[in-house]
Amino acid sequence: MNDVSAPDPNGPEQSTRARVAEGLARRYRRERRFRLLGLAALLFGLGFLAVFFVTLIANGHSAFQQTRILLDVELDAATIDPEGRRDPIALETANYQGLIRDALVARFPAVTERRDLRELYALLSPAADLEVRKLVLDDPDVIGETHSLWLLADDDVDMLMKGYIDRDASEAGRRLSDQQIGWIDALVAEGRVDRKFNRYFFTSGDSRDPELAGIWSATVGSFFMLLVTLALSFPLGVATAVYLEEFAPRNRWTDLIEVNINNLAAVPSIVFGLLGLALFINLFGLPRSAPLVGGLVLTLMTLPVIIIASRAALTAVPPSIREAALGVGASKMQVVMHHVLPLALPGMLTGTIIGMARALGESAPLLMIGMVAFIVDVPDSPLDPSTALPVQIFLWADSPERAFVERTSAAILVLLAFLVLMNGAAILLRKRFERRY
User: Fold this and answer.
1) Are the C-beta atoms of residues 299 and 392 closer than 8 Å to each other?
2) N or C: which end of the chain has fewer CB within 10 A?
3) Is the confidence at residue 424, as pLDDT, over 80?
4) Where are the beta strands (DSSP E) in 99-251?
5) SS3 string of 72-87?
6) Are 338 and 330 a contacting pair, CB within 8 Å?
7) Cα–Cα distance, 371 to 281 (Å, whole number)
8) CA 301, CA 294: separation in Å to the nearest integer?
9) Which residues contact 323 (CB under 8 A, 6 or more apart)?
10) pLDDT higher than threshold 60 for residue 97
11) Which fold has domain 216-433?
């Protein structure tokens, strides 16, 4: 006889609950995996960012110091001002290089051969005499005295002191000879070699000698370009956004304009450089490598970004603001100028500063208009030849000297500092002018 058990009344219900619990557990496991994957992606990106900054700082921090050599320089009157008239032209053109070479020979009197003398003189920068010239021009009364001066060392000496030249390598495999390293060690033992703040990096323009190369000329050029860009792109961008958002009729022409503005925001920056070359230089005849042309090109590049950001800020203003102003008798222009625009201004300023920060870091369009030229002088106006900070970084990165590697990284740090300041200014302005409604 077959034994048939009684059916369990809770069986289907228990089975359904088990399936629901299993489904919930499966969904929770998927959610945890998704969160872990998101966290891993975040940590992965932060890791790459940390490696980038650590590498950049490790390579660039040493550029803010420069090796100098202490020498007792006799300011011989017969060499500097033989006629004793203290004529500024005579003081300016005196043989100061000979004075510092005499001071070097006085430290190492055993060096007499011409070849050895050339190696000895090479310990100092070709522009080391600038320190002596400045001392005499500032105070001609020092002529005839002996002064202990920290003179600028050659970039190879600087690289040796910073550990970038392997002194244990073969003599043929490094830029300093064994004899030069011996002289440097002797000066170090006497306390005559030290690293000082590298003021040339912040106060001078570009140079063929790495120890004299600085970012001041490029910084001034970037400032003039951003000034031109801001003066043109902000009013044009805001006016265009206000017209399209508040006054323009909705038809196929405005739709076409909006589509083209959105497309221009995605155009590669080098295309704007080609446009600037053809339009501003070839057609209008503006000077090459001038901040004015660079500012015009960057204006074309940043206008779409500013227009889109300004329109988004205008759209974010509640319609009730417009309706309330119109309800009390304000005209359309009064509504926009007195109510809508002040509320949208923080977003417009934020978009403008972000667009300017993007323009500050651009180099491709500037290369097309000739700002890649080697320019030493600091520009006095937007019409003077100049270069820009990103282009300066590009030029230094292509230089073969090891000393330019650290200056490239240091210039990138300065550029990043400017970008951080500009983004911080955007946040502060947004907080400062933001209104609650």
Assistant:
1) no
2) N
3) yes
4) 146-152, 193-197
5) EEECCHHHHCCCCCCC
6) yes
7) 12
8) 11
9) none
10) yes
11) MetI-like fold (1.10.3720)
Beta carbons of 133 and 96 less than 8 angstroms apart: yes
Edge-to-edge strands, sheet with 65-74: 146-152, 65-74, 193-197
- Name residue 407's amino acid: R
pLDDT digits (tens, 9 = 90+) for 107-163: 999 988 999 999 999 999 988 888 899 899 988 888 888 999 999 999 999 999 998
Query: For the chain, how are helix, strand and coil distributed in percent, rounded to 5?
Result: 65, 5, 25
d(CA 304, CA 420): 22
Query: Given this model, what pLDDT does residue 3 score?
Result: 52
3-state secondary structure of 248: coil
Q: Residue 369's pLDDT is what?
A: 87
Burial pattern 203-228, b for ≥16 Cβ within 10 A else e, equals: ebbbbeebbbbbbebbbbbbbbbbeb
Residue 9 has pLDDT above 60, yes or no: no
288 close to 369: Cβ distance less than 8 angstroms:
yes
Say how far apart CA 385 and CA 321 lie, in whole Å: 49
CA dist 186 to 107, 108, 120, 192, Å?
10, 10, 13, 9
pLDDT score of 14 more than 70 = no
pLDDT digits (tens, 9 = 90+) for 338-378: 888 888 888 888 888 888 888 888 888 888 888 887 888 88
Going by pLDDT thresholds of 50, 70 and 90, the confidence category of residue 1 is very low
Domain ranges within the chain, ordered by starting residue: 67-198, 216-433
Mapped to the 3 state alphabet, what secondary structure does 222-246 carry?
HHHHHHHHHHHHHHHHHHHHHHHHH
Between residues 431 and 177, which one has the greater pLDDT? 177
Helix axes 403-433, 389-397, angle to 10 degrees: 160
Residue 36: what residue type? Answer: L
Query: In terms of DSSP bridges, do strands 193-197 and 65-74 run parallel, antiparallel, or are they unpaired?
Result: antiparallel
User: What pTM, to 2 d.p., does this model score?
Assistant: 0.83
Q: How far is CA 385 from CA 270, 274, 278, 370, in A?
A: 20, 19, 19, 9
Q: What phi-psi label fits residue 84: left (phi over 0), alpha (psi between -120 and 50 degrees) or beta?
A: left
Asked whether the beta carbons of 288 and 370 are under 8 A apart, the reply is yes
